[in-house]
What does this fold into?
Amino acid sequence: MKQTYGDKIFSILNYVCLAGAAVTMLMPLVHLLAVSLSSPIAADSKQVFLIPIEFTVASWEHILQNKGLWGSFGITVYITVMGTLLSMLFSVLTAYPLSHKEFLVRKPIMFGIIITMIFNAPLIPFFLTVRELGMMNSVWALILPGLISTFNMIIIRTFLMGIPSELYDSARMDGCNDAGILFRIYLPLSKPVLATVSLFYAVGYWNTFQRAVLFIRDPNKWPLQMKLRAYLTSPEELAAVNMALGDYDFNTTTLKAATIIFATVPIILVYPYLQKYFVKGSMLGSVKE
It folds into this structure.
């Protein structure tokens, strides 16, 4: 279909607006990267915008040699990978039966699940429950209490409801059980929504902060966001400034900028690999016939 002149103008405006939004979102990261690669004098005097001034990698050398930061990075990677896998498994196992009309009690169960979206558990009972289960100072306290997100589970359920019931009936006639139907038929057809929801879960686990504040007392078990918070609010957590002949190579300003980039970029790099599934999955998972 040939585009009209108005359609072309509309497309151009869309591209301009999207490009402007992308630049607006990227500028803070580029600015922080420039600060982390600049000299302390230029960073403290607010001379740096998007291009490093008096280029130096001293801050990055210090950050990458910080064993405590790498330890927190490893804990966060473990929480993100293990938490996403477990959350996806239990979300799918919950969504699958609730997507079938033949499941007679699905409406009262869904009502009870939706109630949790409206009324959250009070903080004090939540904390006491986790403590009584013996999960204080354990990475499992950052995974198990929020294993299933109601919103994400509903997205998966709605997507599964859109799969033709004839596939289910045919598989049952061929003697396939529910586990086989789920893992051999439904999940291969659900790659877009699975990739999208996996990304939602991964970002949530990567950014774990509130539960870490509540349940993790040992600094050696802090996830990356807790370590970043300590660096930003307590400059003494950063190493002492390196002095040489009355000058220095980095200070807390450049170290903070480098640490923020270090904690943010890894999860951003996941997006390009899931981009082709993201829009399709979120759209299909939000439509119900």
